[in-house]
Amino acid sequence: MQKTRVYLSPGMFGFATLGSLEYFEHFIRAIEERFRDRGRAVEIHVCEVHPTASILRRAAKLARLVDESAGADDGPIHIVGHSTGGLDARLVASPTVRLPGNAHRRLGWTSRLRSVTTINTPHFGTPLAAFFATVSGQRLLYAVTALTVAGLKLGAPPLAAASALVAALGRAQLGFFEIELVDRSVESFIRVLDDASSRELRAWLKLLRDDQGAIVQLMPEAMDLLHAGLEDRAGLRYQSVATYAPRNAVRDWVSALRSPWGAMSAAIFTALSNITARLDEHYPCRSHDGSIEQKLARVLGELPPPDANDGVVPLASQVWGDLIWAGKADHLDIVGHFPGKGGHIDWLASGARFNRLRFDAVLDRIVTGMVAGEQSSAERAAPPPRQVVETRVRERDLDMAQGSVLDAARGGASTGSSGEPA
Predict the structure, then answer these.
(1) 63 close to 92: Cβ distance less than 8 angstroms
(2) Is the pLDDT of residue 388 over 90?
(3) What is the pLDDT confidence band of residue 235, given thresholds at 50, 70 and 90?
(4) What pLDDT score does 405 carry?
(5) Measuring CA to CA, how many Å separate 6 from each of 33, 42, 78, 120, 215?
(6) At what angle do helices 135-154 and 179-191 cross, to 10 degrees?
(7) What angle do helix axes 179-191 and 195-210 make, rounded to 10 degrees?
């Protein structure tokens, strides 16, 4: 059987590796297990994309990676994008895409593409991007990003720095801001990492400062242009995973926490979630035809409030194509960063109580959808079945016509159903 290739594209807070930390570590292991259980060979690649560069630049890098590693066989290809990475995946799959440089010549593999899976992707934008586009928001983005890396690597970054970040978030929401306070927080996060990780984190944060095209593009007001120029590929399976952390659960979770860091991280998540919940009636981060609400209600059994979000992206903004799983999880829980055994580390306490059981259910649905995409493509490519019945009918009619001609030549007469002359 031909080898299946799966490509993972991380989001704004994502990376392939940073120091010894692998962003998709648990996700990769889960996909490999499910393909192995099916007796299938799978090869997984993670795209090293610029964290906040424009979606076009990120998509071009993804296209080059697939082109360079997909091989010359006809094996199926699948792309999974988390957060902004889902938009990268949709863009490279679009038949109308125009990538910069020579990247447009790197799309020959799209005929082998069988599915695009988007996870916590802001298909209709997120208010958090509009906040991060401000001067205050940019500095806080640096701090939150450094916190994410330190939190995933260490489990509990320094409390003093986290406390300063909470204070800065609170002041930013009230219209006040202290740059020095945030900068001190970032330096505190970096200092507690090992030398290699610190150097890589500084280089990564520099990339974030140098190019913030995606932040502007992810604003709800800017998504209209993306939808106007982006087209789904006919016959390709599009599937999505959407999550949210109930707002009241965050408060309940804080009261149940035993560690100071847990309470601090919950406060940071709550601040991010509150910013993400600021929906504009003109740009509500969802489609206007009500189809998304119908999908969510069908999967969840009820429709959460309009401001429901995963701390970074509104719930309704995450739905595209077939909604294969929706439930309670924060923005990074879904790719394996949740509390539990097996090396799982939670980046922020959201109150979603995501666990291994839900993680396994999500991965089961994702891989099942990939296989379904391959089967649908095979059915479309197969030649149509021979119309045996219709052929036999035509042959019978021909025989009857030839018999009538012979009867007429002999001077005979046709008969009715009773056998008597008509």
Answers:
(1) yes
(2) no
(3) very high
(4) 41
(5) 13, 7, 5, 18, 26
(6) 20
(7) 140
Terminal-residue alpha carbon distance, the chain: 64
Contacts of residue 406, Cβ cutoff 8 Å, sequence gap at least 6: none
pLDDT at residue 98, as a whole number: 87
Mean pLDDT on 239-267: 74
Which residues partner with 18 through β-bridges? 21
Q: Which residues have C-beta within 8 Å of that of residue 229, sequence separation ≥ 6?
A: 96
Q: Which two tokens stand for residue 91?
A: 């863009």
Which one-letter amino acid corresponds to residue 265? S
> What six digits make up the tokens of 418?
């009773």
Selection from 121, 61, 66 nearest residue 90 by Cα: 121
CB atoms within 10 A of CB 105: 11
To which H or E segment does residue 187 belong? helix 179-191
Give the distance, in angstroms, between the CA of residue 380 and the centroid of all CA atoms in the same chain.
26
> By C-alpha distance, which of 85, 72, 25 is closest to 338?
25
Mean pLDDT of 382-390: 59
- Give CA–CA dist 44/263, Å, rounded: 36
Greatest mean pLDDT among 106-110, 312-316, 375-379, 390-394 lies in 312-316
Query: CA torsion, points 319, 325, 328, 331, in degrees to nearest 10?
Result: -60
Q: Which long-range contacts (CB under 8 A, 24 or more apart) does 129-136 make?
A: 129/215, 129/216, 129/217, 129/218, 129/219, 129/220, 130/219, 130/220, 130/221, 131/172, 131/275, 131/278, 132/212, 132/215, 133/212, 133/215, 133/216, 133/219, 135/177, 136/172, 136/177
Structure tokens at 294: 């119908």
Rounded to a whole number, what is the largest CA-CA distance in the chain?
111
H or E element at residue 62: helix 55-69
Using the predicted structure, report yes or no on whether residue 410 has a pLDDT greater than 80.
no
Identify the top-confidence range among 189-193, 257-261, 302-306, 375-379: 302-306
